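step: validate -> pass
step: tokenize input -> pass
step: predict -> running
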Amino acid sequence: MVRTAVILGAGRGTRLRPITDTVPKILVPVRGVPLCDRIVDSLIAAGIERIVFVVGYLSERIVAHYGRHPHSAKFEYIEQVTLDGTGGAVRLALPAIEEDFLVVFGDSLFARDAVAAVVDSPARTVIGVVEVPDPERYGIVTTDADGTIVGIEEKPERPASNLAIAGIYKFSVDAKRYFADLPLSPRGEYEMPDAIRMMMDDGIPVAAVTFDGMYDVGTLAQIEELEAMDDAAFAETFG
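step: predict -> pass
step: emit ->
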């Protein structure tokens, strides 16, 4: 049973300005609810007992917001001063991790069953994925007949599948050493997919778990699109 989750929430969200001039990206409201609130509630409903937030920009507002949460005693905060990639954020959280753990991007909307689907998977190393019509815009995985991932590609020109990486991961505690040993990528960041490739190269099976929907909230136009959705359609997908 996974009991610890790491939420990545240090980004500035510059494409969401002027909202993010005063609001951290993971707290940007969508239909009246801060983005990350839905994630936190899903984690708690799935049995997560401890949430580690990796924070940076306007971190004091995140700490104040979740300090009022009914489960605030379960929350911890780690500051990411240098934004050096998703792998860099996970590296900062490693000293707080002593068992299998989740990693969740705090600035997306996920289908209401998404967190539970990843938590409940019998596999210890999992990437949550969604089927998309435009896979060239995403990180894409390819799988074998058993659903085990055999390849990861970032925004491929000729995608081999339509399974997009959705931003919810489950790792065994053994993954800590791969993140600790992660080299900088050519663009000067620690990349989470690189750590996963290192695991795969060592023969660690990585499963793909597909769920019904994900929405990467990165621009004002995307927020407007979500606000304009029919109430029933929104609730059916995102709860």
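step: describe -> The helical segments are 35-45, 59-67, 86-93, 114-120, 176-180, 192-201, 220-228, 231-238.
step: cleanup -> pass
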